[in-house]
Specification:
extended, alpha+beta, 2 helices, five-stranded mixed beta sheet, about 120 residues
Length: about 120
């Protein structure tokens, strides 16, 4: 069965799908095609847990019942720091919030309180 994933790193979001039977390493190869970073230089997290390359997605708790197209499972991605064995800090920036609606677009309290009464001419 397919699992649908949202993979986030800083301000980047990747949406992809994979099979439950794929390994985490297979998923990293999919990510490599997008980011051009080798699987060995990637680290995937589910919440705060590092996903092991040899485990399947299902063994990692990513199943089709939990990772649907309309509600993909969230993972975070970190890259290896150049010329070191260390990985960068897990740093996912929040999505921006839309600005507040201008006053002319807000419903007035009278039309909300009495929606069936016609407005006075």
């Amino acid at each position: 069965m397919d699992v649908f994933l949202r993979i986030r790193r800083e301000k980047t979001t990747i949406f992809t799908d994979a099979k439950e039977s794929n390994t985490v390493f297979d998923l990293k190869k999919i990510i490599e095609g997008i980011t051009k970073k080798a699987p060995e230089d990637q680290q995937l997290y589910k919440d705060t847990e590092v996903l092991q390359d040899t485990k399947t997605l299902a063994d990692s708790g990513l199943t089709s019942s939990k990772a649907k197209a309309q509600d993909p499972a969230s993972l975070s991605l970190c890259f290896r720091i150049d010329d070191t064995e260390d990985f960068e800090e897990n740093n996912v920036k929040p999505y921006s919030n839309p600005p507040e609606l201008p006053d002319v677009m807000k419903q007035s309290e009278t039309s909300v309180a009495n929606p069936t009464e016609p407005l006075a001419p």
